[in-house]
Amino acid sequence: MDLEDSIALYERGQLLKAHCEKKLKSAEGRLEKIVMGAAGPEIGETMETA
Predict the structure, then answer these.
(1) What's the pLDDT band for 36 if we cut at 50, 70, 90?
(2) CA atoms of 23 and 21, how far apart (whole Å)
Protein backbone atom coordinates (compact mmCIF):
# COMPACT_ATOMS: atom_id res chain seq x y z
CA MET A 1 0.00 0.00 0.00
CA ASP A 2 1.43 3.37 -0.90
CA LEU A 3 1.65 6.39 1.37
CA GLU A 4 -1.32 8.21 -0.17
CA ASP A 5 -3.62 5.23 0.38
CA SER A 6 -2.40 4.91 3.96
CA ILE A 7 -3.10 8.58 4.63
CA ALA A 8 -6.56 8.31 3.07
CA LEU A 9 -7.37 5.30 5.25
CA TYR A 10 -6.11 7.13 8.34
CA GLU A 11 -8.29 10.15 7.52
CA ARG A 12 -11.31 7.87 7.03
CA GLY A 13 -10.60 6.24 10.39
CA GLN A 14 -10.47 9.61 12.11
CA LEU A 15 -13.82 10.60 10.59
CA LEU A 16 -15.38 7.32 11.69
CA LYS A 17 -13.96 7.74 15.19
CA ALA A 18 -15.44 11.24 15.48
CA HIS A 19 -18.80 9.99 14.17
CA CYS A 20 -18.89 7.12 16.66
CA GLU A 21 -17.93 9.37 19.57
CA LYS A 22 -20.73 11.78 18.65
CA LYS A 23 -23.28 8.95 18.47
CA LEU A 24 -22.07 7.54 21.80
CA LYS A 25 -22.30 10.93 23.50
CA SER A 26 -25.85 11.34 22.20
CA ALA A 27 -26.85 7.88 23.42
CA GLU A 28 -25.33 8.53 26.84
CA GLY A 29 -27.32 11.77 27.12
CA ARG A 30 -30.54 10.01 26.21
CA LEU A 31 -29.88 7.23 28.73
CA GLU A 32 -29.10 9.71 31.46
CA LYS A 33 -32.48 11.38 30.89
CA ILE A 34 -34.21 8.01 31.11
CA VAL A 35 -32.35 6.97 34.28
CA MET A 36 -32.83 10.30 36.03
CA GLY A 37 -36.46 10.63 35.02
CA ALA A 38 -38.50 13.78 34.93
CA ALA A 39 -37.95 14.58 38.62
CA GLY A 40 -34.17 14.63 38.27
CA PRO A 41 -31.62 12.89 40.45
CA GLU A 42 -31.99 12.46 44.17
CA ILE A 43 -29.59 14.37 46.40
CA GLY A 44 -26.13 12.82 46.00
CA GLU A 45 -27.29 10.43 43.26
CA THR A 46 -25.24 10.13 40.09
CA MET A 47 -25.93 8.16 36.94
CA GLU A 48 -23.46 5.49 38.07
CA THR A 49 -25.40 4.85 41.30
CA ALA A 50 -28.89 5.14 39.84
Answers:
(1) confident
(2) 5
